[in-house]
Structures are given as structure tokens and as C-alpha cells.
Design a protein that fits this description.
The protein is of the alpha+beta class. The protein folds into 2 domains: 149 residues, no CATH class; 151 residues, no CATH class. Helix content is 35%, strand content 10%. The protein has a 4-stranded antiparallel sheet with strand order 1-2-7-4, sandwiched between helices. Strands 3-10 form a two-stranded parallel ribbon. The chain is elongated. The termini are far apart. It binds cobalamin and iron/sulfur cluster (SF4) (2 copies). The site of one iron/sulfur cluster has 13 residues, from helix 7. Its main location: cytoplasm.
Length: 373
């Protein structure tokens, strides 16, 4: 437990926010450990089965919703956000180019987990320099932590109907991270005002109908889950709507009116590697396993492994316009050792035998308009 007797908590809180900005975080807020209704919201979501195969979402009981059960003596949570959209990268335009692969914009460069964890550790070390030892633990994404609920309570933004934390001045294309701490810091005002109003653009645009109610995502329908979390076959009903989205999905953010206020990231680590922001599906599908491993080292894409990478790309190729390059790439993998890949390749080849010309589930969907290129 830190000796905080000589501290001015307000000055310390201000200092922590300055340090966070110096370390490249776009904003920092502080909240307590009471997550109010969010425990009930999570329980209802799990009860409805919306987590699909993500067993880790229910494994930790109330540790996820009660920070002091995960890290004893936690009194406050320092919540940070970091913008990730690289400068000059196009987004929505790619969805209208069915021969290209759409990789979610958060995954074009280096894996954010390590980068943000390291920055949070640096933040803690700098706080220690100012006040001496104190208790803390850094988290980003992979721990049983309710990151969005904490972010809303720490003042970063509101829960959009697409379930994203949205800031009215910078949209939602940012990552979240936290320091759990035993410091009795003053807490910030939660972000109470919801700005969605009568807008429903995200719900209209979602290609697979995954936003089943305001702020509620059925992960089993979400392309992000289907392409990253799901281990087995992608259910047939979602293959066409996936279009060329081969790793994650951004549609419900690209159409959000607040996305036009996105702040481009200054982190060079998030810059696209191997032209992943505009690569052809065929080029990526033709990567050998050795190339996949080399090209995705240090990238969030690595964790899905080569077979699921091919699975996703096969779906994209099934939705691409018929061409000799597409057909020969698919034919070359017809007898691929993995049954998962073979089945998706067979499906893709079938699509090219259909009499109808190919159409891609593209953005703008229905009446929704992308608010960022
Ligand atoms: C599991 C998970 C997923 C799953 C499930 C998504 C989901 N909505 O839960 C899948 C794989 C589908 C996914 C996809 C994505 N994810 Co994700 N994901 C997570 C993870 C690990 C847990 C989220 C969680 O707790 N889900 C449980 C449900 C119950 O929570 P929730 O959806 O946030 O719902 C809340 C609201 O409904 C809210 N609520 C508020 N008011 C009200 C009112 C009522 C009446 C109700 C019922 C609910 C409600 O209460 C719920 C609980 O807090 C977090 C990291 C973390 N540890 O927190 C990242 C995280 C949420 N993901 C993130 C990102 C970037 C994405 C993607 C954009 C990635 C991509 N481009 O493909 C998509 C976006 C999909 C979407 N629209 O949500 C970011 C979000 C940053 C932000 N600005 O909000 C996080 C925080 C990771 C990070 N550290 O940056 N993700
Ligand atoms: S990420 Fe894509 S599939 Fe998932 S809810 Fe948003 S628009 Fe729908
Ligand atoms: S698209 Fe509209 S409804 Fe959806 S999150 Fe953005 S403002 Fe809210």
C-alpha cells in the first residue's frame, strides 16, 4: 500500500494525466471500482449466449466486474485511450473494391497489446518517481476487465448503439487500457450524455445484423468474432455478407457520424506493414506458411494462425469477381491438408460457378453512408 499521507491528490491526478499525454495516450481519466449496472449487463449478455465460443468471458466470475477481486486493494482505475488509425490510410473505400482484402484498421501494424502495456508500465514508473512505491497492475484487452464500462465511468465517452465507447471529439477508433491502483485519487465525472439520438446508422450498416439491440452485440454474428475468435467453420449464412472483410470489421464505426472526428495516430508502430491496408486477396492467400509467420510477426493477425487466415481469405475470394488469378489461387489450395481450409476453398469455388454475377456486401450498406474514406 502506498504511503499517500503527504500527497495532494488533486495535483497528483493532474500530474498523472500530463504524464499519460507525454507517453502518447490521447486521454486519461480516473474512476472508482463500482461498476454499477454493468455486472448485470454482462450477466444478461452471457445468459443470452452472445459470447459464443469465448469461454474466457464467463470464466472469471465477478473478478471481471469487481476490480478489487481481481487485484486486491484496488481503489481506483486509471483508464487511458490511444488512437490507432494511421495517417493516410483509406478505409471505407476498400470495402467497395472486392478484389482487395479489408483488414480491420486496428490490425494493420504492430500488436497494440505489448505497446500499450509497456506505456502503462512507463506511466506507473513515472508516477513512482514522483511519489514513491505504490500498488498497481497494468491491463490491456486480454484480462478479465470491463474496459468499456471503466472508460465510460472515467469520462472517455458514451456507449454508442454499436457498443463502442465514442468520444464526441475523436470518435471511437482508439484502444483502451488501465492501471488498477491502490492510490486514493479523486475520481473524474463519468461521461453521462449519450449523443446517438435517433441515429441508427451502425445498426443499418452492420453486414451480419450483429447489433441485436442498442449497445448489444451478438458476437456470434459479428465479423470480428467470426474472423478472429471462431476456431471452426464460418457459418454459411455469414459468408456472403462478410464480403472482403478478412480480419475484423469496422463497418459500425465507419458509418458513425462521430468517426469523422477521428484523430490519426502518431504511433509509427501502427503504420501498415506489408501493404496490409490495400493488399489484394490473391496476394495474401498466396503467402506460404513461412511467409505468413514472417509477415505477421509482432502483428495481432499472427494469433489466428495460418489455417484460419486461409479460411478467412477463401471466403473473401469466394466473394471476389471471377478472374483467372482468383480461380488459380483457389484451385492451388483445393487439396490443402486442413479440412477447414479445404471446405472454405470448395465453397469459394462454388461461388464462381454460380450464374449470377458476383456482388459484394459493400459499404454504404442500405442507406448508411461512410463518414470516413
Ligand atoms: C469480447 C470482446 C469482443 C467480442 C465481443 C464484442 C462485444 N461487444 O462484447 C468481439 C470479438 C465481437 C469484439 C469485436 C470488436 N472489438 Co472487442 N473486445 C472484447 C473485450 C475482450 C470484452 C468486451 C466485453 O466486456 N463484452 C461483454 C459485453 C457485455 O460488453 P459490451 O459489449 O461492452 O456491452 C456493454 C454495453 O452493452 C453496456 N451498456 C451500457 N449501457 C447499457 C444499457 C443497457 C440497457 C444495456 C443492456 C447495456 C448497456 O453494458 C455492457 C457491459 O459493459 C474487450 C476488452 C475488455 N477486456 O474489455 C474488447 C474491446 C471492447 N474491443 C475493442 C475493439 C476495438 C473491437 C472491434 C472494433 C475490433 C474490430 N475492428 O474488429 C470490434 C467491435 C465490435 C463491436 N461493435 O463491439 C475495444 C473497444 C474500444 C472502444 N473504443 O470502445 C476493446 C475495449 C479492446 C481494447 N482494449 O481497446 N470484441
Ligand atoms: S464489427 Fe462489423 S459485424 Fe461486428 S457489429 Fe460492427 S459492423 Fe457488425
Ligand atoms: S452510428 Fe449513430 S447510432 Fe451508431 S453509434 Fe454512431 S451515433 Fe450512435
Amino acid at each position: 500500500m502506498a504511503d499517500t499521507s503527504s500527497l495532494d491528490p488533486t495535483a497528483l491526478s493532474r500530474h498523472i494525466k500530463e504524464l499519460a499525454r507525454e507517453l502518447g495516450f490521447s486521454a486519461c481519466g480516473i474512476t472508482g471500482v463500482d461498476l454499477g449496472q454493468h455486472e448485470a449487463y454482462l450477466e444478461a449478455w452471457l445468459k443470452a449466449g452472445h459470447h459464443g465460443e469465448m469461454d474466457y468471458m464467463q470464466k472469471h466470475g465477478t473478478k471481471r466486474t469487481r476490480p478489487a477481486e481481481l487485484v486486491p486493494e484496488t481503489l481506483r482505475v486509471i483508464s487511458v485511450r490511444m488512437d490507432y488509425l494511421p495517417p493516410e490510410v483509406e478505409s471505407a473505400k476498400l470495402l467497395g473494391q472486392p478484389e482487395k482484402a479489408y483488414v480491420s484498421r486496428y490490425a494493420l501494424g504492430r500488436d497494440y497489446h505489448k505497446l500499450i502495456r509497456k506505456r502503462l508500465d512507463q506511466l506507473a514508473k513515472r508516477i513512482q518517481r514522483a511519489i514513491g512505491p505504490f500498488g498497481y497492475r497494468a491491463f490491456v484487452d486480454s484480462a478479465p476487465v470491463m474496459e468499456r464500462a471503466l472508460a465510460q465511468r472515467a469520462g472517455h465517452g458514451w456507449f454508442g448503439k454499436n457498443a463502442m465507447i465514442i468520444n464526441p471529439k475523436s470518435g471511437s477508433l482508439f484502444f483502451l487500457g488501465e492501471l488498477y491502483t491502490d492510490l486514493p485519487l479523486p475520481v473524474d465525472e463519468p461521461f453521462e450524455r449519450e449523443h446517438c439520438g435517433s441515429c441508427n446508422q451502425c445498426k443499418i450498416a452492420c453486414p451480419t445484423g450483429a447489433i441485436v439491440d442498442d449497445k448489444i452485440i451478438d458476437a456470434r454474428r459479428c465479423i470480428s468474432y467470426l474472423t478472429i475468435e471462431l476456431h471452426g467453420a464460418i457459418p454459411h449464412e455469414f459468408r456472403k455478407p462478410m464480403g472482403n472483410r478478412v480480419f475484423g470489421c469496422d463497418d459500425c464505426q465507419l458509418v458513425c457520424p462521430f468517426t469523422r472526428f477521428t484523430k490519426r495516430s502518431a504511433e509509427t508502430d501502427f503504420s501498415p506493414r506489408h501493404a496490409l491496408d490495400r493488399a489484394d486477396l490473391v496476394t495474401l492467400f498466396n503467402w506460404s506458411e513461412a511467409e505468413f509467420l514472417e509477415n505477421t510477426a509482432g502483428s495481432p493477425i499472427r494469433r489466428i494462425g495460418y489455417a484460419r487466415w486461409l479460411r478467412n481469405l477463401a471466403v473473401g475470394l469466394g466473394n471476389a469477381p471471377t478472374s483467372s488469378a482468383v480461380l488459380s489461387a483457389l484451385n492451388a489450395r483445393r487439396a490443402y491438408p486442413s479440412a477447414l481450409v479445404r471446405e472454405h476453398v470448395a465453397w469459394a469455388l462454388e461461388q464462381h460457378q454460380a450464374p449470377e454475377p458476383h456482388t459484394i456486401a459493400r459499404l454504404p450498406m442500405a442507406t448508411a453512408q461512410a463518414t470516413i474514406d
